[in-house]
UniProtKB/TrEMBL annotation:
Residues 4-449 form the Biotin carboxylation domain. PROSITE patterns: ATP_GRASP (PS50975), BC (PS50979), CPSASE_1 (PS00866), CPSASE_2 (PS00867). Pathway: Lipid metabolism; malonyl-CoA biosynthesis; malonyl-CoA from acetyl-CoA: step 1/1. This is Biotin carboxylase. It holds the Pfam family Biotin_carb_C. Its EC number is 6.3.4.14. PANTHER family: BIOTIN CARBOXYLASE, CHLOROPLASTIC, PYRUVATE CARBOXYLASE SUBUNIT A. Keywords: ATP-binding, Biotin, Fatty acid biosynthesis, Fatty acid metabolism, Ligase, Lipid biosynthesis, Lipid metabolism, Magnesium, Metal-binding, Nucleotide-binding. SUPFAM superfamilies: Glutathione synthetase ATP-binding domain-like (SSF56059), PreATP-grasp domain (SSF52440), Rudiment single hybrid motif (SSF51246).
Length: 459
């Protein structure tokens, strides 16, 4: 059995860095933040116990620089590194480097990250574990002839996906055979440039779907699940609003999806927190595995709000070698939670990033409201990183109360000086489709085109 961690280096920035610092403080763990020159004045730097600059603003010189991060961890003699999400969090070579240097990596083993990080390999493992996957190619597509053969079985439209894709990137819809050859060549070279891996595979392109994922946690022997999150409100395959529970699952489906996620984790020997993602076909009411994220996710607070369980603290405890002091029966979902990702982007201008100086800032408050954000008045959002400036998470006794609270809290939020996506969240949460709980992943795009045409008509 291990010993509780005494010190942790956080290799990340923004709200997730702050989230990990907060958990460390509550557990009496010394927090050391590794930051870039662009983040020197940020709130996480101010609130960490210690902070160390690891390089200039560009991510490859700092947050994605494995050597710089590990050197900082060794210099500050920390027990382990928390990678957050993005950056080095799903980088198997980085986890292996930590293992080699004798620094803990807060996540699964390098081997598990490597296997599950390759979406083709992950689908094979899922099939072995008896988990249903989206119909498509069994392995990578090497050339056009193979793509044509698979297309014959899968039909059009189909989806070509990069094995190493992520963050909503590395996917292309192919409407018909006419463009298959060209699309295949283009996405392979795009994947090579973006991810350093040209491997792609084919899936049936499902059109009336929801995105539903299962949160799992494992200490290496016991695997538990913490229910689902529904992330169907997306734009361009990127999540905007997440909620738990899903408004469409019944008890049987919920149980079978959770069992599938747990079986998958047992199959690979999973440790720490992870998420098993499914697309859910609205017509056949069938879930299909799409990928596993071997890290903490952006939307983890939704699960924390309905279960009362602190996922980051569990991550830290497991990384210290402590066994889970929970059983599946201890995990009970109560009420409903909704998260809005607030981005510094202009919905009125093609969602162009909108960095700049924040004037006045007012965070919403009151019952059931949680705001996870690193911004404050006078803060200058650097242009180098992801545009997310915070997450608003609201809990209610039921879904209707959670929606009412979300709208009430969005009304209280003030972020002067920059344009954010808060107004879009108000539109979504207030729409009849969202309120009904019956919608699919195309719903936000439909809502946007509808409101754009009314804006034009009334303007
Ligand atoms: P989640 O699955 O936690 O909802 P996202 O898929 O939105 O998270 O990704 C979390 C963060 O990591 C985002 O900032 C996203 O831009 C980044 N990210 C995830 N995967 C990749 C990748 N392969 N390449 C670049 N950035 C990524
Ligand atoms: P990423 O690694 O970028 O998160 P995912 O494989 O998780 O990529 O897919 C992201 C989103 O793309 C899903 O939530 C879903 O909306 C859409 N998507 C993925 N696979 C399919 C599919 N076969 N058909 C239709 N939409 C899909
Ligand atoms: Mg995904």
């Amino acid at each position: 059995m291990g010993e509780p961690l005494r010190s942790v280096l956080i290799a990340n920035r923004g709200e997730i860095a702050l989230r990990v610092i907060r958990a460390c403080k509550e557990l009496g763990i010394r927090s050391v933040l590794a930051y870039s020159e662009a983040d020197a004045g940020s709130l996480p730097v101010k609130l960490a116990d210690q902070a160390v600059c690891i390089g200039p603003a560009p991510v490859n010189a700092s947050y994605r620089n494995a050597r710089a991060v590990v050197s900082a961890a060794l210099a500050f003699t920390v027990d382990a590194i928390h990678p957050g999400y993005g950056f080095l969090s799903e980088n198997a070579d980085f986890a292996a480097l930590c293992e080699a240097e004798g620094v803990g990596f807060i996540g699964p083993s390098a081997d598990v990250i490597r296997r599950m990080g390759d979406k083709i390999e992950a689908k094979k493992i899922a099939r072995r574990a008896g988990v249903p996957t989206v119909p498509g190619s069994v392995g990578a597509i090497a050339e056009y002839g193979e793509a044509l053969a698979v297309a014959g079985e899968v039909g059009y439209p189909l989806l070509i996906k990069a094995a190493a894709g992520g963050g909503g990137r590395g996917m292309r819809v192919v409407p018909s055979a006419a463009t298959l050859e060209k699309d295949l060549a283009e996405i392979m070279s795009e994947a090579e440039v973006a991810f350093g891996d040209p491997s792609v595979y084919i899936e049936r392109y499902l059109t009336d779907i929801r995105h539903i994922e299962i949160q799992v946690i494992s200490d290496g022997s016991t695997v538990l699940h913490l229910g689902e999150r529904d992330c169907t409100a997306q734009r361009r395959n990127q999540k905007l609003i997440e909620e738990s529970p899903s408004p469409v699952l019944d008890a049987d489906l919920r149980r079978s999806m959770a069992a599938a996620a747990v079986a998958l984790c047992q199959e690979v020997g999973y440790r720490n927190a992870g998420t098993v993602e499914f697309v859910f076909d609205n017509v056949s009411r069938t879930p299909y595995f799409i990928e596993m994220n071997t890290r903490i996710q952006v939307e983890h607070p939704v699960t924390e709000m309905v279960t009362g369980i602190d996922l980051i603290k569990l991550q830290l405890q497991i990384a210290g070698g402590l066994p889970l002091d929970l059983t599946q029966d201890d995990i009970v979902v109560r009420g409903h939670a909704i998260e809005c990702r607030i981005n510094a982007e202009d919905p009125g201008n093609g969602f162009a990033p909108n960095p700049g100086r924040i004037g006045a800032f007012r965070a919403p408050g009151g019952p059931g409201v949680r705001m996870d954000s690193h911004i404050e008045a006078g803060y200058v959002i650097p242009p180098y990183y992801d545009s997310m400036i915070g997450k608003l998470i609201c809990w209610g006794q039921d879904r209707d109360e959670a929606i009412a609270r979300t709208l009430r809290a969005l009304g209280e939020l003030v972020v002067d000086g920059i344009v954010t996506t808060a107004s879009l969240h108000e539109k979504i949460a207030d729409s009849p489709e969202f309120r009904s709980g019956r919608f699919n992943t195309a719903f936000v795009a439909d809502l946007l085109s509808r409101t754009e045409s009314t804006d034009r008509a009334s303007g």
